Amino acid sequence: MPYVAGDTMVRHAWQEGYAIGAFSAHNAETILAVLEAAEAERSPVMIQIGQRAINTLGLAPLKALVDAYLGRVSVPVCVHLDHSRRFEQTLEAVRCGFQSVMFDGSHLPFAENARITRAVAEVAHALKIGCEGEIGKIGGVEDEIDVADEEALITSCEEAARFVAATGVDYLAVSIGTAHGLYTRPPKLAFGRLAELRETVARPVVLHGGSGVPDAQIQRAIGLGVAKINVDTELRQAFTEGMAGVLAENPQEYALAVTLGRGREAMRQKVQEKIRLFGSQGRA
Hints:
This protein is an alpha/beta fold and 284 residues long. The protein has eleven helices and eleven strands. It has helices at 6-16, 28-41, 51-57, 59-69, 87-96, 110-126, 157-167, 191-201, 215-223, 233-249, 256-278; strands at 20-24, 45-49, 77-84, 100-103, 130-135, 139-142, 145-147, 171-174, 179-180, 205-207, 226-231.
């Protein structure tokens, strides 16, 4: 099946009351784990390419890997650029054929964030792909972007409305109590604010820091307008623990096909678990 634009994929989920899993991939095995899980569950899926993976392998090579494996699946797939802080990088992703791009200007003054995000949105809309922006600071560490807990703010409805009006983004990442990375204590999402944001922005909301959020909170958030959920840390955990299990059984096992294969299988199972939680199974 050909790639599907991010705005088409996420808006359908928003209208139908489920969420798209946006799963971070870092190499060939993790890309295959996501695609195989989506095919097994008959689910549309986003493969996220983040900054750490880009710094390691390169943006274009990672997109080429997804291209190479796309023929193995028949479900809708979207490749998404995650947390770009450079306008030039978003244009590079567009040239490489990404179907969704995110400019993260949450560290910038409002006016500068809105100006650059609008420029990205205009390019995305001209090419009929999806665009994500972020308003409010989401705590934790992801791809070497570190936001201290005291700096993570709950997004206000006023700033969200202003940002959407100024940029025209297709889906909006907000801060409602999640964090990137591992939680040191169970998160408590700001559901009241999420309900207000749903009415204010009238478009899909993106939940960053989806790893480790209790299932009941995830399902409640989807009911309040979250239609794209980012997952990375739990996937890397599963992959690493899968590989470690091989060495625990046989410390002399040096065949990468075996260790990486076990990691891939463990991550595939975790992605399938998340797909079912998000309600996207059978939606292909």
